[in-house]
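Same chain as my last thread, 880 residues:
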Amino acid sequence: MTNELTPKFNPTEVEAGRYEKWLEADVFKPSGNPDAEPYSIVIPPPNVTGKLHLGHAWDTTLQDIIIRQKRMQGFDTLWLPGMDHAGIATQAKVAARLAEDGILPQDLGREKFLDKVWEWKDEYATTIKEQWGKMGISVDYSRERFTLDEGLSQAVRKVFVQLYNKGWIYRGEKLINWDPKAMTALSDIEVIHKEIDGAFYHITYQIEGSDEFVEIATTRPETFLGDTAVIVNEKDERYKHLVGKNVILPIINRVIPILTDDHADMEKGTGVVKITPAHDPNDFEVAMRHDLPMINMMNNDGTINENGGKYEGLDRFEARKQIVADLKELGQLVDIKPVRHEVGHSERTGVVVEPRLSTQWFVKMDELAKNAIANQTTEDAVEFYPPRFNDTFMQWMENVHDWVISRQLWWGHQIPAWYNEAGEMYVGEEAPEGEGWTQDADVLDTWFSSALWPFSTMGWPDENSADFKRYFPTSTLVTGYDIIFFWVSRMIFQSLEFTGKSPFHNVLIHGLIRDEEGRKMSKSLGNGIDPMDVIEKYGADALRWFLSNGSAPGQDVRFSYDKMDAAWNFINKIWNISRYILMNAEDVSADSVSSALTKVANKTAGNVTDRWILTRLNDTVERVTEQMDKFEFGVAGHILYNFIWDEFANWYLELTKEVMFGEDEAEKDITRAVLLHVLDQVLRLLHPIMPFFTEEIFEKLPNTSGSIVVAEYPKVRPEFNDDKASEGVAMLIELITAVRNIRAEVNTPLSKAVPMLIKSEHADFFNAVSPYISRFTNPSELTIAKDSAVPEQAMSAVITGAELYLPLAGLINIEEEIARLEKELAKWQKELDLVNKKLGNERFVANAKAEVVQKEKDKLADYQEKFDTVKARIAELKEN
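reply #2:
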């Protein structure tokens, strides 16, 4: 049987080979339809340092959901894949691998070392693509890019040269963040501030030519030999007599001046501040104001240099210990006070960052930042989801510092600057002509090239490139809030500068994935989760469902295997639904389905439950599409889950058994067609989120052809809407549920038939659906009337449009029944209070849509009717 599904959902079997089939069919490439609206995404490039992590799996899942839905909606979609060279991280990984064989990068030299890095890149790029395949991401590999591709390298050189020629890139000596392990400069946002235990070391400096001392405090005594002044506040009466004099630095006995500067806070500590310009950003600013010398105490590897006297060659922290011991011996260490303080650590290597004077290349940020800020007030503004992250972006741009872009590495874009022996410098896209020129050995910060990603991948700087003209600006970027500063902001200001446009229309921000206890995943905690391990156990569809439904935009999500179990159970539920439908629709043709649906739409065939489920399907399509357009994937998933599990599986499929086990073949044909249509539409709605198993089932449906990847996304079909049927079946479901609840309260199983009275103005409807009532409630005697005497000893329930009575003499306790009804009365009173409060809010009534206000008024009428009926029933029971 061609449409047979295995008895149990097996993700490994379903997903095996499916991705390769999609690639072979080229279903991920743009449609090329010139009349279709373009929709483009460039993947946030993973770096080639290793395997994908859950955060990147989240990025790619959400982007794949977007692009798959847009593709099904008829957009000309391009999802461009690529990877990032990740200078510091990748060079460190390759160096570590070589160290296992006792080889240092210096042993190989630059060119041979880079050959090893390219080997690493090829190895891990292959791994990443295999993992993308397991995730099911629908990218166009014919357009794959890498940040060190020649085309992207050309874009990098052009940008550098243009910014340099405008005076916005410059080379100079400034205080920067230095990573002593990677031995390279870092930008401010590559520094993570962590709280650690430290100490304030209180040291005395002697006033030259006297026995007087001043006391200073420092957390870094290893740098004090680089002091070039001490300062006091000019308003500080305690030290006015010392201004203009000198102090003698302990140990090395160097004389440095006492100056006044507002940086000295009279209320903080002793009011005397040591100035170490080459190792503190505030001290650097003071030194610039007073034209002080700047003495660098550190070598590239964090050891003390020749300026450190007898401490030369010691690691900075070992030097700290020895300096403290020597100061103590001299009697100039007054105190050591423990302190818990924030210290900068390298985002890449984890070591304590050293503020250090260094000659580097910088991007002057003032004009670039102004342009980005101004753009957010125009029609070309980037829309952030959630909107609060626009404030995050703006605050950073308003306070941004010049960006240090040079890195002391070999792996990356080598800076396009050359020097000769005459001391001349040449900056250009290509090397200068003539002999004697040497290129700058440094490379650019990885984020410099990544900032150009949305347009450099499209063929820029060739603005006539077909992809650039067609797909730029890109439509949507999905990324975590942790790289708004690193990447999002830089893409925006670089794109505005070089293309005159924002790089993308929308930025969807998600949070971080944490463990079940809410902790950030890290190697040190050992709580990391490999997405490939999750896929091996549960399948990619289950992981994707979890990642898309775990939280709202911008919020963190906690990973748990309980949630993965729930995702797998949901898929298995749909699998079983599909098996039931396919087993009952072996010989159904596409034409017969179309013909049957036309009859239902025209109200010439189909029962009330068929019209109800089609109405509910329309509502689901409308709401899911609306939420997907707002990137509220969790809300969309919740709507889908409720429709599929509750309305379609638990109710409609069960209700169809009254027809399927009956004798009317024409009615069966209609129900089969409706079952197949709803399943078809459900699979299409689910496909962007869970592509593998939906394709597996879709291709077995008798009324479909081709891949679901390019199938039309569901649309609302107004001809299927039937409000009367929808309201009627809602009453039927409420009735059946009420009977089940009453039976459960008095421990009366469904197998035991009991008499039932339905008192309702809708008696004609309940008579029409009495076969369903009988099947699902098992009445020994069913009475349906517009008016009828109420049994004295009966359990009762008030539902929308009806009163239900189950005469259960001998099984009920009147006092307990009254108590139960009083609880129900309190429930309806609470509902009435809530609706009355909302309708009593003038702002709500004035600003809400008319249909929303009317819905609340309808609720009020319904709740009031239920309240009055329950109240009357309580009075009856008390009278008897």
